Amino acid sequence: SGIEVCRRLRQRPQSRNVPIIMLTARGEESDRIRGLDTGADDYVVKPFAVTELAARIRAVLRRLRPGLAEDTVVRGPLALDRSAHRVTRDGEDIHLGPTEFRLLDFFMQNPGRVFSREQLLDAVWGSDVYVEARTVDVHIGRLRKALSRGAPGFDPIRTVRSAGYALEVDRK
User: Fold this and answer.
1) Cα-Cα-Cα-Cα dihedral of 65, 106, 111, 85, to 10°?
2) Which of 98, 102, 119, 149 has its CA 20 to 30 A from that of 126?
3) What is the DSSP string of the chain?
4) Which has more pLDDT, 168 or 49?
5) Is the pTM of this model over 0.70?
């Protein structure tokens, strides 16, 4: 049942934080309460309007990860527009490769937080891809070079020795 699937997803560490919206024909109050208490983030009873479902998905994303619900994320002088696949620094275009774009997007969702190479590999490259951990260093270097082009001394990527990397947008 959907309740059992939800329960199992919440028990597994790798799927514990996956947003869950139950779509069901069971509309009794006790069913809705049971679904939400099991771990669903929302509960929608059939029939439903697609526009309502889309609004509920946006609401869940806003609550769980505010940075994912917006097309444009701004941190300090940096702006990342997901829909246009565009990055600017103080209004000037910055050209990034696809991996550097995903890396910056991930950092901008979590400013100030330090991530190890392994965490960055999982978040940006995916857990089912085999890539050397040192590959992260190469892409961090490319990202730094692109972000500082035309702005000597601007380096928002902080290296934390023996720990990893973080985005510090307040540093100039």
Assistant:
1) -100
2) 149
3) -HHHHHHHHHHSTTTTT---EEEES---HHHHHHHHHHT-SEEEESS--HHHHHHHHHHHHHHH-HHHH-SEEEETTEEEETTTTEEEETTEEE---HHHHHHHHHHHHSTT--B-HHHHIIIII-TTS---THHHHHHHHHHHHHHHTTSTT---EEEETTTEEEE-TT--
4) 168
5) no
pLDDT digits (tens, 9 = 90+) for 94-118: 999 999 999 999 999 888 999 999 8
Tokens of 13: 């560490």
User: What is the per-residue pLDDT for 40?
Assistant: 92
Q: Which residues pair with 62 in a beta bridge?
A: none
Question: 79 and 130: one domain?
Answer: yes
- The per-residue pLDDT for range 106-157, each reduced to its tens digit, is 999 888 999 999 899 888 887 666 788 889 999 999 999 999 998 888 999 9
Q: Which residues pair with 24 in a beta bridge?
A: 45
- How many CA atoms within 13 Å lie on the side-chain side of 51? 0
The residue among 66, 87, 119 that closes a domain is 66
End residue of a domain, out of 14, 45, 66: 66
